[in-house]
Structures are given as structure tokens and as C-alpha cells.
Amino acid sequence: MKELDLLKKDWKKNADSFIQVSENEIYKMIHKKSSSVVKWIFIVSIIELGLGLVLGLILSFTKYDEKNVELIKHLDVYEYYIIATAIFYAVVLYFIFKFYTMYRKISVDDNTKKLISTILKTRKVVKQYIAFNLSFFAFFFIVFGGYLFYEGYLEGASKNGVANPEMPLNIALISFIVLIFATAFFTFAFWLVYKLIYGILLKRLQNNYMELKKIDL
């Protein structure tokens, strides 16, 4: 009986060791995958910023951009346009920096709880980044688009000989409704793109989080 008890104890000890080794291996695998996902979030955000800058640079050499700039300057909103653009890029750079710090942090996390915490924070920051981009686009599109259309209408009426022109209420309402629908359409289109790109990465982080929760139980 004593030998049997010793055998049981030895088997239990080996079983516990096997479980521990398995959990460590799983943790290492999840840690590696999570680090890779966050790195790709960082890379994608840089690519996104780079594409925006390149597109802006290309457009700056076109007559279309020259006409837009002239119109914005003519309407005395060029300073606001520059300020809004500067704020946008400053916030985007801030988020890119956050993604980089998250990547650095997740690379050195040495236990399950820290890794879980970093994954949750990363998912939160990514969602904030997407929300900011979509909100800024919608706000910018409505405010500047509406103002440019309004001023353009008044200027066109003045050129046609209308003294003290004002936009009729029905045209203003129709224009506002069209602007809202256009904003909603383009915002939704951008959301689908973000959902496709960042959604896949966030889904992988979510799966890693669920696996880590099982280990941490």
C-alpha cells in the first residue's frame, strides 16, 4: 500500500508538472502571436498615415487641389483648414506612438495578467483611433463641406446679379439632408475599411485574450 501511495504521489507530481509545462508553452505561443498582432497594428497605422501623406502630396500638384486651396483662401477659412489638418495629424501621430509603446510593452510582458491587461488596453486604443478618424472625417466633411457650399451658393448668386443674396430655406434643407446622407455614406464606407483591416487584428487579439483567460482561471 505504501508503494502504491508513493506511486500515486509521484504520478500526481508529474501530472502537475505536465500541466505547468503545457500552460507555459501555451502562454509563450499566445505571447508571440499577440506581439505580432500589435506590431502589425503599428505597421498598418504607419502605412495608413504614409498613404494619406503621399496622396495629399500627389494632389498638391494637380489643378483640382489648386482650385480647392484658392476657394478656401477666398472664403477666409484657410487658417482654420490648416489648424484642423495639423490637429488631425498630431492626434494620429499620438495614436501611432501609443501603438508603438503597446508593442514594446507587450513584447516584454512576463506573466499572464500583464499580457491580458496589455491586450485589453491595445484593443481599447485601436477602437479610440478608429472612432477619432471617423468622427473627425464626419465633422470635417459636414462643417467645411456645408460652409463651402453655402458660400459658393451666395457667391454664385452675386455673380448672377442678385443683391444681398440669401440661400432659400428649401435649398438649405435639401442641401443639409444631402450633406448628411453623403457624410453617412462615406463614413460608413471608411468604417467598413477599418472593420476589414483592424477588425481582423482585433479579432485575433480577442481570441488570444480568451485563451489567456482560460490559463489564468
TrEMBL record:
The chain crosses the membrane at residues 37-60, 80-97, 129-150, 170-194. The keyword Transmembrane applies. It comes from the Bacteria. Keywords: Membrane, Transmembrane, Transmembrane helix. This is Uncharacterized protein.
